[in-house]
Amino acid sequence: MIRTLPRWVLLPAALGALLVVLPVVALVLRTDPAGALALVTSPAALDALGLSLGTAVVATVACVVLGAPLALVLARTRFPGQRVVRALVLLPLVLPPVVGGLALLHTFGRRGLLGTPLELLGVQVPFTTVAVVVAQTFVALPFLVLGLEGALRTLDDRVEDVAATLGAGPTTVLRRVTLPRVLPGLASGAVLAFARALGEFGATITFAGALPGVTQTLPLEIYLQRSADPDAAVALAVLLVVVALAVTVGVHATGAPTSAGRGPGRHGGPDDRAGQAAGAGAGRTAPDGGPGAAAAPVPVSPAGAVRPAAALRIAVRVPDRGLDVTLDVAPGQVVAVLGENGAGKSTLLAAVAGLVPGEGEVRVDGVDVTRAPPRDRHVGWVGQRPLLLEHLDVLDDVAFGPRSRGAGRRLSRERATVALARVGAGHLAGRRGHALSGGQAQRVSLARALATEPRLLLLDEPFAALDVGVAAHARTLLLGLARQEPRTTLLVTHDLLDVLVLADRVVVLADGRVVEDGPVAEVLARPRSAFAARLAGVHLVTGTVVASADGPARGGAAGGAAGGAAGEEHEVTVDAGAGLVLVGTSTEPLTVGEPAAAVVEPRAVAVHTVRPTGSPRNVVPVRLTDLEPSGALVRVRGTAAGGVVLAADLTPRAVAALALTPGTDAWFTVKAAELAVHARPAAPAPGATLVG
Ligand SMILES: Nc1ncnc2c1ncn2[C@@H]1O[C@H](COP(=O)(O)OP(=O)(O)OP(=O)(O)O)[C@@H](O)[C@H]1O
Fold it and tell me: What parts of the sequence cross the membrane (predicted)?
């Protein structure tokens, strides 16, 4: 039974439980069952019990009404002094209740802060039943706030962002997404608050007194009976314990999240594979002809009328995240957005979706949506994680968007059914999100985005969390959808396959700026940024052109420039700094002093353990850093002057013959003809960028 816990933990755990249970048992043993019944059913006892239950229920409702918004503000907003506010709200947890009672007296009492205005209105709070409720709420509120705030913080609030992009306003998001998802947390917070209110004593006796039938709750009755009739006190104490236990156990049992409705589990059964196969190709039937065959993607139906693709103009700045990007995207174009971690790709998408505040402008088909909230931007956003609304079944999750945009329940479900069918997930309609495999969940997430017929599709690494095979299916599915219905799309990815299969254009971001932008084939053939070079499987050294020969000079010799004519191959020398000078060839007109990138494929690099003599134009001394398999070859990396990393692909036999190991000093050689030099838009520090 104890699989991961050390056995010794049982001892302190048992002692802790005993410390709580033993005194209660002692209390029960001390009770005389025959006499107890008469004592607890006496009018005074029943009055006190009724008052306790009634006031505790009202106090719990007050805690929910006041505490839930408080928890939401604390968990979902940022404002100066937030920590202080939280500490003050939670103060009653650590304050002796009698101190709380005194504080309430000085607030609502005759000479208290609010006492005089209340008196003018003819309202008297202290020593009334209202005072009991106020005292109970005062001490119980922190339990609700703490429970709910904790639950809110453990939720992924990006689900709320997704709901906003699907067309839901803030109140709808709160009502249909946030609150249902934290219901178990809210329920347990309310139970704790109720239990605390039921047992409240110190603040009540100080602020409300002990007037039988008015303010004398059960804890007060027990206290007062202690000296007058100890047996009655014990009997009433047991009654209080029983009531408190019944309520907490009962509500916990109903409020706890259930596992009912779970299907075959996150990684699915055979049904799962069939579904994935069905999603693999638009319009194809599942190869096994199983359930997936019926669930194959279907063409768009009238229920999901297609909007024409939109032109997109982005000129956004998000200063606190260092993003400054200007892009014009043609209708129906699929732009792969690439870049190192932290380059700003997700921020760009979030700015377009309206999820992060930015400056500048976003125009969709010429319409300025810069200041529009996410729900009015008509974007479909799909992230790395599916972020499904797990409190709904798949059909209602996908119907959430159309419903938020004003379609009735039936029409929304019809649209959801069509969208699910389009991604080959129709057979999943009745399941809950937690009962889907990763690939299935991601297809549902895509269907949900498509169900609102977005003008733009924003895909933030949609396949990154999927297994290779499942990602391939999802990629093919997306391709099929894009062919059926071209849609302007920004696709963040780190995967060359996504770029090759799905994108028309590549934009590379670095430090929040566009450093490369062009058609896919062009960028991969002539990468100018480290990231694009790595993606294309080549290495890249940046530097400055110091000589450009073998071609006619461009524009005479003005400014000392030399250069080759565009289209003619000519030799170019690039200084990468730290003494590393490389000679390559270029077909671009390059000017001395211009930033340039020298690109080399690892298979064109030869490795020597003694300095070579003879023909190669580039002989670079390196220290080997690592060796790793690269297909049937071994990729050998070495660091040259200035920290520049270069790589060579060798056969395992050559690696063995040369006895190459990390730390070996060697020479990499490359022919000038194998080193392609391209102009770069801007130069990072020369020679500092190299990838592999
Ligand atoms: N919630 C946030 N609050 C503040 N700064 C953030 C937040 N999220 C990201 N950043 C910062 O904004 C910059 C851009 O991050 P972003 O997540 O857009 O990069 P990315 O290119 O999508 O990276 P990755 O490939 O790792 O997802 C980074 O400097 C990052 O630290």
Answer: 48-75, 87-105, 125-148, 232-253
Q: What is the CA radius of gyration of the chain?
A: 35
Cβ of 346 less than 6 Å from ligand 1? yes
Residue 482 included in any domain? yes
**Contact status, residue 672 vs residue 583, Cβ threshold 8 Å:** yes
Please name the residue whose Cα sits nearest to atom 2 of ligand 1. Answer: 321
Query: By percentage, how much of the chain surpasses pLDDT 70?
Result: 87
The three-point CA angle 539-541-544 to 5° equals: 155
| Ligand 1 atom closest to Cα of residue 343 | 21
Which residues 6+ apart lie within 8 Å of 456 measured at CB? 310, 312, 352, 364, 377, 378, 379, 380, 487, 488, 489, 490
pLDDT in tens, 383-415: 988 999 989 999 999 999 999 988 899 999 999
Closest CA to ligand 1's atom 24: 341
User: How far away, in angstroms, is 158 Cα from ligand 1 center?
Assistant: 14
Predicted TM-score of the model (pTM): 0.70
Distance 506 CA to ligand 1 centre (A): 20
CA distance 442 to 317: 30
Domain match, 330 and 217 both: no
Atom number of ligand 1 nearest to Cα 321: 12
- Cα distance between residue 500 and residue 479, in whole Å: 11
Q: Does residue 239 fall inside a structural domain? A: no
Q: How far apart are CA 670 and CA 216, in angstroms?
A: 93
- For position 618, which CATH number holds? 2.40.50.100
- Domain boundaries, position 578: 526-679
Which of 206, 228, 250 corresponds to the end of one domain? Answer: 228
Whether the CB of 344 sits within 6 Å of ligand 1 = yes
Q: From the CA of 461, give the closest atom in ligand 1.
A: 27
Pocket test for ligand 1, best of 347, 349, 511, 531 (most atoms within 8 A of CB): 347
Residue located nearest, by CA, to atom 27 of ligand 1: 341
Query: Which residue's CA lies nearest to atom 12 of ligand 1?
Result: 321
55 and 101 in a single domain? The answer is yes
Distance CA 192, CA 63 (A): 11
Alpha carbon nearest to ligand 1 atom 8, residue: 347
Residue nearest to atom 16 of ligand 1 (CA): 344
Q: How far apart are CA 594 and CA 681, in angstroms?
A: 9
**Tens-place pLDDT, residues 431-459:** 998 889 888 899 999 999 999 989 899 99
- Answer with the one of 515, 548, 579 that is the final residue of a domain: 515
